[in-house]
Specification:
two-stranded antiparallel ribbon, four-stranded parallel sheet
Length: 183
């Protein structure tokens, strides 16, 4: 599993073996076996959903004119955890990476263009990683969407909250200067 090293895996195995009841292990195994059939991706936005309806797309209080583009469903969870964003999402599923064989066909661009043209979208927020792949994807999307009647923005980059300037790397510090805001 991603993020689980040898020692953590050992702890999990010993805990399962020594601490869990047989019925708990069987219930856990059953839940894992049902996972793929119980959870799917929303056909509209690409976020994860349990059952037939997406809790985000079906939420009438969401601002439908605001669409945040993210790379994967994981980022939807991260954005939702902040409690700050009340718009909709569009999950790309991948970032551009020609060296890894990931091209523009994976981005499903016609779907987002159709949402903009027919769904009353007024602003697209690009919430992509600050990596070579994320920057390339953001630039590509900006070029493809700039002729549509929609405002395009990107999340700010800069210094993490609570960090000391002496420990911030040069790239992050440079981005913070470029993206500075007046107050």
């Amino acid at each position: 599993m991603p993020g689980v090293g040898r020692r953590t895996a050992e702890r999990y195995a010993f805990d399962l073996l020594l601490e869990w009841k047989k019925s708990e292990i069987e219930e856990f195994a059953h839940t894992l076996s049902e996972l793929k059939s119980a959870i799917s991706q929303c056909q509209e936005c690409g976020a994860l959903q349990e059952g037939a309806s997406c809790p985000i797309c079906s939420d009438g209080a969401r601002r439908k004119e605001l669409v945040c583009i993210v790379a994967s469903p994981r980022e939807v969870f991260a954005m939702e955890a902040t409690g700050e964003y009340r718009g909709c999402y569009h999950v790309l599923g991948a970032l551009l990476s020609p060296l890894d064989g990931r091209g523009e066909e994976l981005l499903n661009l016609p779907k987002i263009i159709r949402r903009i043209q027919t769904g009353g979208v007024k602003e697209v927020i690009l919430a992509l990683d600050s990596t070579l792949e994320g920057d390339a994807t953001a630039l590509y999307l900006k070029q493809e969407l700039e002729n549509l009647p929609v405002s395009i923005s990107r999340l700010a980059f800069g210094i993490p909250v609570g960090s000391s300037l002496e420990y911030v790397d040069g790239g992050t510090l440079a981005r913070a200067f470029l993206g500075r805001a007046h107050f």
